[in-house]
Amino acid sequence: DFGANELSRESGMSLYRLNHRLNRIKGKTTNQFIRELRLQKALEMLQDGALTISEIAYRTGFSSPSYFISCFHEYFGYPPGKLLKEGFGSREESKPVPEELEPEQTKSTRRTFIFATAAILILAFIIYLGITLFAGDVSNRNRTPETIPEKSVAILPFRNLSDNTSDQYLYDGLMEEIFNNLSKVKELRVISRTSVEQYRNSTKTIPVIGKELDVNYIVEGSGQKVGRSFRIRIQLIEVSTDRHIWGDSYQRVMKNTKRFFRIQSLVAQNIASELKSRLTPAEKQLIDKVPTLSNTAFESYLKANEYQKDYENTRSMSSYQAAANLYNAAIEKDSAFARAYTGLAFLHWKRYYYENYFKEGFLDSCLVLAGKALSYDDKLDEAYFIKGQFYRANGDSEEALKNYDKALEINPNYYAAYEWKSYIFLWVLDDYVKGLENNYKALNLVRGQDRPKILRYMGRIYIDAGFPEKARNCYDEALVLDGRIASWWGNTSWIEFSLGNFEEALKLKKQHERIDSASYLESANLLGYYCVFSDRNEEAYDQAREVVDKYQKAGALNLARSHRVGYAFWNVGKKREAEEYFRQQIRYGEEDIKLSRGQERSKAAQYDLACTFAFLGEKGKAYKYLDEFSKKNTFPLWWVTMIKHEQCFNNIRNEERFSNIVKTIESKHLAEHERVRKWLEEQGML
């Protein structure tokens, strides 16, 4: 386990200074110096002949026999297996001297010479370090060693050097598999797959990309396919120096996928070794796993992934059907191909979520497919993730968290699992501290287009917990990253609304609408703003009609704002239509509670029903749902503000029972605010 960081610590030098000194003395980096000493020791062990190559590889600190063989061959000019067969040979000799031509005395003399030479070199180096430390660099003794570089990695999209661009999915698949393998290594921080997509055709330099992604190492690759043969070049680059610290080329005839996955396994192990991340047996087993032996099944799966991405972005039914057909084709070719089942599960989730929202078998197909995948591969992180999603959507938060944690045990870099854990802790379990902790873990793994989204979510957590300035900081950072000024207007308007500055909030929200009126959810939020005013009836009505139209076009259910549409229609005299929307809210709310869907778990369904019944004059039902609503452990700031000012509660606003409920809600918010404040102080974030 002794590596560059340990030598840096033992010598009392920073790693940078140690590298500089060694380079000046021997023309080598610290890693090269240590590797060569390991190889010399391995040579001695091979001479003794008592151990196998694998045993020697591990005893001399190499993470895998294949990497040891590669390094040995490069350094000595011949593989260690040849040495075992033919006897000892020095680095200067093109071939090892056959044992029968070398007398035992000569071998003994040569061995003594090597031992003596190695001892002299090491002793000279130690003496030099001592002189440097105590005579030439006394001040360094009192300096804290520099921080050891974090083992953070980003895998850039691989370049297709073939003329046939239709093969790109193969290189994307190779990149994704290497990403999946490195993500399994707990000692590494691996930036998310979507974070690097922005650099697919980028001309930026590695140091610039590394800085933007906040990583210390970059993996880049290129490949070319000729017939069934692949030529692939992969290299690991240190961001700070723009230096290639490891690289290798592979050429394989793809008779079956085992060769393809063997490349990915070797790459991941070599990179982990170069970064001094020793693989656990469990991690190595995960990396060495071959998900399918069928070329046809694997190619169908990779193509299906591309169509699924297109469906997610465009909602094109032709892309959906193509993805479904290809996943099923992969399963037909290899019925034990676990990832094909999870791919189909994710596709079903995106296609049927709203269509089956109120059905008893809501998302059952996703659970069945995830279970099928796990029956063939019980260490598949994405299968546990989709199970977590199923249980979350069906109201079983405990099972959801268990499955997210199982996914993270296998893949500690699975940022979406941290995101959804954060969601459960915040909106279901009312634990803002754990919500923040998990959101920060997700944020640490994401750069690129997904980072602003997580920052905005973080801002929402902060304003809900009553920290408007920290929320503004998150929104400002997100704006710098993606330039979405419309989102910035919308988010800052929500801060003003939560603080009770309604006129300012409405003004900011209208600016947001003028720039970006496409989002039906944002328009629906604007409609909610009008529910605290009594003199904007025509504006509210116009907004309500727009909301109805956008929900219909999106194919989504207006689960939380149908009563607000009804309120807007009622105030302009359209009472028949208003009653229809109030009934819709009652139907949605009661069904949500009955089936324990998302609105019920956050108690939004109870609040919306209380609003509806209070406006309709049914006080008994209004208080029934308000009592259930007030049992939540805590409440976001906006909800405290909303219940104090919402016009729908005017019929009961002055009643003591209602006032007591409001006080209870406010006191619970303040208690959680104080808990978050203490946590932030402990983290040095206040």
A few lines on this structure:
The protein contains 32 helices and 6 strands. It has helices spanning 4-11, 15-26, 30-48, 53-59, 65-76, 80-86, 104-136, 168-183, 206-213, 257-274, 281-288, 295-314, 317-333, 338-352, 364-376, 381-393, 397-410, 415-428, 432-443, 450-464, 468-482, 485-498, 502-515, 520-529, 537-554, 562-570, 575-595, 598-601, 604-615, 619-629, 637-645, 656-682; strands at 152-155, 159-160, 189-190, 217-226, 229-238, 243-253.
Describe this structure in words.
With 686 residues, the protein is mostly helical. Strands 1, 2, 3, 4, 5 and 6 form a 6-stranded mixed beta sheet that branches. It is elongated and about 95 Å long. It has 32 helices and 6 strands. Helix content is 65%, strand content 6%.
Question: What tags apply to this protein structure?
Answer:
65% helix; single chain; six-stranded mixed beta sheet; 686 residues; mainly alpha; elongated
What is the β-strand count? 6
The major β-sheet equals: 6 strands, mixed
Helical proportion, percent range? 55-70%
> Structural class per helix/strand content?
mainly alpha
Number of helices: 32
Distance between the ends: 39 Å
User: Average pLDDT value?
Assistant: 83
What are the segments in which pLDDT stays under 50 over at least 5 consecutive residues?
87-107, 130-147
User: What is the radius of gyration?
Assistant: 31 Å
**% residues in beta strands:** 5-15%
